[in-house]
């Protein structure tokens, strides 16, 4: 008897050769392939399409073959392995459907689980819904891992509504959600501003479904409300934790401190830190960074420095970020001299200044006109292998030129050249006119010798500017020679 091959069978036999072999191995069915595409009755039934009206295939024969197939199909475990081996989720779904139509054969729960996750990952969400409906009519105990997988897929697909629906689907399956499922769904929801309120409603009603929110649950919502400018709700949630015997952690305090600092309520944030310390918590480095930055921005420099000194006593050694935050705060408020003291204290506290420390300090000193001190720190940072940013070196060179200290400006240029750094063209444009205005020819020549004494290589970038600088000096000299 000759049969026409359904479309999905052709796909299985050609591009899915491995699937065909697996199917043949576990079913024990022989397949005959020839130019006329002859198949045994058992072979046909495995791949029988959903169209029942093939004129060659009568109902009686079909029933007989279904009965024969039920005797040779093998175990549900073999069907499961075949479904799991398919890289094409739609092909896996066809195999699942064909096996489901075999009389007296029940597809295993594992096959449902594997296929649902396969389809979800490939974004065939309508097929996922259909399979869940079918699964609900089966007498299987559904595991929470199935829904954990679905929540993860919906999170990656950025589908908060489906993630929320999954929680209630678990209840329909009489599958008890755990706090980790609640928290995962809350994370998905609060990542969207429009779903913060639905997340809050789910959180408030969780106990009705015998799910107890834990510290992580509170932290998720507190952070969401802080970021959405609802600090009062975040504070209320924080206080509820103590009433409901949920112990806050370091992150709970930090989230609320960050929210308070964002609202410029620095004093309340400091009070919260004290409460945290009194309860035996050791604040982490990020909590201190938040407070130090807020105190400096509110011009509470003394309090910031005291907090910096207390950190080590309270069990958290200040790192380079903490020091640089305070140094920047002092420099920004015109207290660069005090920032120098902080930098000098760093090595004794086990923290060495870095490039940012020096650049911030030199910039602050230049802003206050303390050019000699700035020059000393430039020398120090260069001796330690750090390169000054051209904006910092230019500020120092320009500052010396503005107060008439040409020699010092040239010394800074010389230091940069020796270190292999090319002064910015703006720096040359400031220095050279000052030199050319001098009436003492010997001093001009001496200054140029100091600048150009260092051998310049093509890698310094200065070589590209040399021709322009030469022309500039020549023009200045020629202009002076024309004067009466």
Automatic annotation (TrEMBL):
Pfam families: PPR (PF01535), PPR_1 (PF12854), PPR_2 (PF13041). InterPro entries: PPR_rpt, TPR-like_helical_dom_sf. Gene3D superfamilies: Tetratricopeptide repeat domain (1.25.40.10). Keywords: Repeat. Signal peptide: none annotated. PPR repeats lie at residues 143-177, 214-248, 249-283, 284-318, 319-353, 354-388, 389-423. Belongs to the PPR family. P subfamily. This is Pentatricopeptide repeat-containing protein At4g01400, mitochondrial.
